[in-house]
Amino acid sequence: MKQTTERPVPRWAYGLAHAIPFMTLPSGLWRLGLVAGSSMGMLDDSGQPAHLRGFGEHLYVVCLTIFAEGVALITFGLVKRWGEVAPAWIPFIGGRRVAPYAAIVPAILGGLSLIAIWTYGFRDVFSDSFIPFGSTGAAVLMISCYAPLQLWGPSVLLLTWAYYRRRRQVSAPAALVSAR
């Protein structure tokens, strides 16, 4: 891996940043199955296969999938140069150094939000009040596709910790000692 950041990125952090988009991919592919016209085994209130209705629902699911994958890809900023210096093409801030807390605070809030969202989302997964499915296999497929999302928030927090450690300022006394 070519070193382009100010300080070396730990190998585990680099690998984790590249794994995060693959955590969101299975659920996105599952949702796109709905867009393609499959019920993915879900049943509606009358016990019939559930399908998306209308252009609006289809558009919502596609946009949700693209948004989730885009947010997952943003975590590369915690291990890449553009997380330290804003890309030149960005108006007003392009080429300027990114203040560490401008990345750290949103990443912490995002990681904690993801933990809350997916903890809440999985609250009924093993109860009778979970989404009705036509078969156990369909339910297992859906749960398997969404289960990696449980790792997304903690992974963002781990990457944020590594970013913080890499970007933190050298303390003044240590800088004075090394200057002598």
How would you describe this structure to a colleague?
The chain has 180 residues and is an all-alpha fold. Helix content is 57%, strand content 0%. It is built from six helices and no strands. α1 packs antiparallel against α4, α1 packs antiparallel against α5 and α3 runs antiparallel to α5.
Number of helices: 6
Give the SSE order as H and E letters: HHHHHH
User: What would you call the shape?
Assistant: elongated
Q: Average pLDDT, to the nearest integer?
A: 90
Secondary-structure-based class equals mainly alpha
Largest sheet: none
Rg, alpha carbons = 21 Å
Number of strands: 0
* Terminal CA distance: 34 Å
DSSP helix fraction? 55-70%
Proportion of residues in extended strands: under 5%
Flag low-confidence runs.
170-180
Topology of helices and strands:
Layout: H1 11-35, H2 54-74, H3 100-121, H4 136-146, H5 152-167, H6 172-179
